[in-house]
């Protein structure tokens, strides 16, 4: 398949074939640049659009977009070697259905990959069977973006260097979304029918892309619907002053003198090879680099507006709909992610991801635990508490808040207690429906083989998802905010009461109260 982008040239992708039948499934364009490479002078700066002179290819020599996208530099994952990487990673993979587009163009799913915002790649998911074999007929755009210290390092020195900026990975996603809005019509897509979604950190990013999109700083509204899988809005992030110590620790590990001027520190960091920076992370106290409340991409008023109901009112005003939900055993997928071994290390570990006063508040119930309790005890406590903070509690608190201003017909909640057999090769069966196992449902195998009975079942589950992405009326079945469309452990689709709704809301209340009690003082500094 060839695509002609007026002013930018010609792109040629590949038609993917079914590995068994050899029948065409869909078209794919991969490694498609959407921004200037964020290297050298552009490291730790907002992404820049492609220059006017950029060309994807010519009529005589179309650009070949068949290879996987570059993978952002990232640390080893749990002892495993990271893939070959390249800082020139601001590229998208694009899947296009076969056949003629509808009159207004294919609906578009802008899908953000997960990985704690520290790991992963847009190459790791495969929605080709979803497009080919289910009612979900849409273009899927999945961008690569900067991760870890390349995407979310923050400090006074970086803030003062040139134009103030932080949350570079979020800005990457935003530029990729704007590129999609401006260019997807050339692939047969409808730019006025864009759903943004993602799993885990991709779901967290989806929320913050939505918040920016409907906030005061965006040029125009792009997002019509959001598809949030196993994550929500999280908690109000750290401010710049709280992450300064992490930046100073990075300088110490790299041997950069603290007596250097701010400009000299940044210049030295920009001159270092990516491999050296990635290796340095292994020796740091806090290994995760998280978004901050910068007052630029992320407004200081965001969480107060959620608590007060104003955010829900804005969603209602714009008619934005949401699919959002979780799995029953998420904690198994979290408990091995750098687990703590004591109460104090529990607070320290949670402080990688959340403001320390929030970490202390949610850890208080475990303060009386005996210090000598086993590592397995603390690993289990961490997995469950982290799953609540990342997903179960903060997601339900957010949904409860926006439901005060939104009709239930716009909030489509789900819960899953089932998994396909193909997941067994990645996760022990006893883990049940744990974090990320549902990708074989949402992406119809996600590159793995499904049994025939599983295909029939998943197609049924996905019918309202197809309507949702298409912008049609959704027959979800829930009647109240505490009900969910449920896949039961024995593989049945039912509308049920959310059995943990009341149990999970208290942690949201704790985070809300401690956030409201901690006034922001110069959040950028």
TrEMBL record:
Record SUPFAM superfamilies: alpha/beta-Hydrolases
Look up the signal peptide feature and give its range.
none
Q: Which UniProt keywords apply?
A: Hydrolase
Q: Name one Pfam family in it.
A: COesterase
Residue span, Carboxylesterase type B domain: 8-468
Q: Which residues form a coiled coil?
A: none
Top class in the EC scheme = hydrolase
The entry sums up its family as follows: Belongs to the type-B carboxylesterase/lipase family.
* PANTHER family assigned: CARBOXYLIC ESTER HYDROLASE
Q: What is this protein called?
A: Carboxylic ester hydrolase
């Amino acid at each position: 398949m060839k695509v002609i982008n007026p002013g930018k040239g010609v792109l040629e992708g590949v038609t993917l074939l079914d590995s068994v039948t050899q029948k065409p499934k869909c078209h794919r364009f991969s490694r498609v640049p959407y921004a200037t490479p964020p290297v050298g002078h552009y490291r730790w700066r907002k992404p820049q659009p492609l220059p006017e002179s950029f060309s994807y290819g010519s009529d005589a020599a179309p650009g070949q977009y068949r290879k996987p996208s570059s993978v952002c530099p990232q640390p080893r994952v749990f002892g495993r070697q990271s893939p070959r990487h390249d800082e020139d990673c601001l590229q998208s993979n694009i899947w296009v259905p076969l056949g003629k587009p509808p009159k207004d163009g294919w609906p578009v799913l802008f899908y953000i990959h997960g990985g704690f915002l520290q790991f992963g790649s847009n190459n790791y998911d495969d929605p080709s069977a979803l497009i080919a074999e289910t009612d979900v007929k849409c273009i899927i755009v999945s961008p690569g973006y900067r991760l870890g210290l390349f995407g979310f390092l923050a400090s006074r020195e970086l803030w003062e260097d040139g134009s103030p900026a932080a949350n570079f990975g979020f800005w990457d996603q935003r530029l990729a979304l704007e590129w999609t809005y401006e260019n997807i019509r050339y692939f047969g897509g409808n730019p006025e029918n864009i759903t943004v979604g993602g799993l885990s950190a991709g779901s967290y990013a989806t929320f913050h892309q939505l918040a920016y999109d409907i906030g005061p700083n965006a040029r125009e509204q792009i997002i019509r619907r959001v598809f949030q899988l196993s994550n929500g809005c999280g908690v109000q992030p750290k401010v710049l002053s709280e992450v300064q110590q992490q930046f100073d620790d990075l300088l110490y590990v790299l041997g950069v003198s603290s007596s250097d001027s701010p400009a000299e520190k940044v210049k030295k960091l920009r001159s270092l090879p990516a491999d050296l920076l990635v290796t340095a992370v292994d020796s740091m106290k806090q290994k995760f680099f998280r978004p901050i409340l910068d007052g630029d991409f992320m407004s200081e008023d965001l969480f107060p507006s959620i608590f007060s109901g104003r955010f829900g009112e804005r969603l209602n005003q714009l008619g934005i709909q949401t699919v959002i939900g979780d799995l029953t055993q998420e904690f198994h997928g979290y408990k091995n992610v750098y687990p703590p071994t004591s109460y104090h290390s529990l607070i320290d570990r949670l402080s990688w991801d959340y403001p320390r006063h929030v970490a202390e508040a949610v850890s208080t119930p475990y303060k009386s635990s005996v210090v000598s309790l086993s590592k397995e005890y603390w690993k289990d406590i961490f997995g469950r508490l982290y799953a609540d903070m990342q997903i179960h509690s903060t997601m339900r608190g957010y949904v409860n808040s926006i439901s005060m201003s939104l009709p239930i017909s716009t909030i489509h909640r789900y819960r899953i207690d089932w998994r396909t057999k193909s997941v067994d090769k990645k996760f022990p069966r006893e883990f049940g429906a744990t974090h990320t196992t549902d990708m074989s449902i949402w992406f119809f195998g996600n590159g793995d083989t499904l049994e025939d009975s599983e295909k029939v079942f998943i197609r049924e589950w996905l019918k309202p998802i197809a309507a949702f992405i298409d912008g049609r009326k959704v027959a979800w079945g829930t009647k109240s905010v505490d009900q969910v469309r449920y896949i039961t452990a024995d593989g049945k689709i039912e509308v049920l009461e959310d059995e943990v709704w009341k149990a999970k809301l208290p942690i949201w209340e704790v985070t809300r109260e401690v956030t409201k009690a901690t006034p922001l003082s110069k959040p950028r500094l």
